[in-house]
Amino acid sequence: MPPSAGETLPPLLIVFNAGSGHGDKAAIRATIEAVLTAAGRTYEMIVVDDPRQLSAIARRTVDAARARGGVVVAAGGDGTISAVAQAALASGCPFGVLPQGTFNYFSRTHGIPSDTAAATRLLLTARAHPVQVGLVNDRVFLVNASLGLYPQLLEDREAWKRRFGRSRLVAFGAGLVTLLRVHRRLRLHFEHRGLAHDVRTPTLFVGNNRLQMEQIGTAQAFEQGCLAAIMLRPVGTFGMLWLLLRGAMARLGEADNIVSFGFDSLTVRPSRFRLAPRMKVAIDGEVIWLDAPLTFRISPQPLVLLKPEPEPESGGSP
């Protein structure tokens, strides 16, 4: 519904990560500003030149948005969006997205276009909707969090991107090289639904995004209100390549070497250590270290996201 006459629209405070995504950053910024200026919308552009300052800038911007009754907007890739969402979640501040990443799983899932001008125009009409957020300990993830092979894949992918540029082909090539290496198997202790298990696996992947899981063929493990865990049984190099091929064909969930299940809470720690070590975790494309044990769960508080109204379901009674 359009705003009523005389209604004051909330200002948009945009955290713009100049080092995120691809494309001409000056042109992207000019596009955002042109759309908002033409619409007469009050906004402020907060440019992040140093990625190490992103979290601190996001917190300050959320505080400013709350004080002004505004909306905080993340302009960047999945990592940028996740960092700003981390600050916005606890505050209840409305949150908008201008996606600038390679895959943009979070924004695509919620109907937010990847085109900058179209996404900016959407901010002018979108309404706030609660959306599900995952947590690993106290860290937000919107798309996925993982241990083992996947964090290594992300580190290798970033190295390739620095050499060859950002594209899906580069990302695929980096992933292929990573999978061809010999990998250390994780020994993990799981606690789930009151039961304990010890497993060996090259990787643990926890998903919170149906679109991504549909693309690799594991959507059957995901349902609203739950997270989805995917583990690989130990396999050799050729087995890993076969799994990569099945994932490219969206048939990974049919593979015998895949274990997947949905859950609402899952605690994980290394099974060989008595003291709690730090563990390398990939969260929405960013690799960090967290203290074990790790607890994966749904956030009790949803993220308040500006997105299009859901499409009405066809068929059936209204």
Q: How would you characterize this protein structure?
A:
This protein has two domains: 12-132 and 302-307, Rossmann fold, CATH 3.40.50; 140-298, Tumour Suppressor Smad4, CATH 2.60.200. The relative contact order is 0.15. The chain is an alpha+beta fold. It has helices at 25-39, 54-68, 78-91, 105-109, 116-125, 149-164, 168-179, 210-216, 237-248, and strands spanning 12-17, 43-48, 71-76, 95-99, 127-131, 134-136, 139-141, 144-148, 186-192, 195-201, 203-207, 227-232, 258-263, 265-270, 278-283, 286-291, 294-298, 303-307. The two termini are 20 Å apart. Mean pLDDT is 83; it is low at 1-6 and 314-318. The chain contains nine helices and 18 strands. Helix 1 (25-39) runs parallel beside helix 5, helix 2 (54-68) packs across helix 3 and helix 6 (149-164) crosses helix 7. The protein is globular and about 60 Å long.
CATH fold-level label of the largest domain = Tumour Suppressor Smad4
* Total of DSSP H or I helical runs spanning 4+ residues: 9
Q: Roughly how many Å is the radius of gyration?
A: 20 Å
- As laid out across the biggest beta sheet, the strand order is 7-6-17-14-9-10
- The multimeric state of the shown protein is single chain
Q: Quote the average pLDDT.
A: 83
CATH 2nd-level architecture of the largest domain: Sandwich
Per CATH, the class of the largest domain reads Mainly Beta
Helix coverage percent of residues?
25-40%
The fraction of residues assigned to DSSP E strands is 25-35%
Q: Low-confidence stretches at least 5 residues in length (pLDDT < 50)?
A: 1-6, 314-318
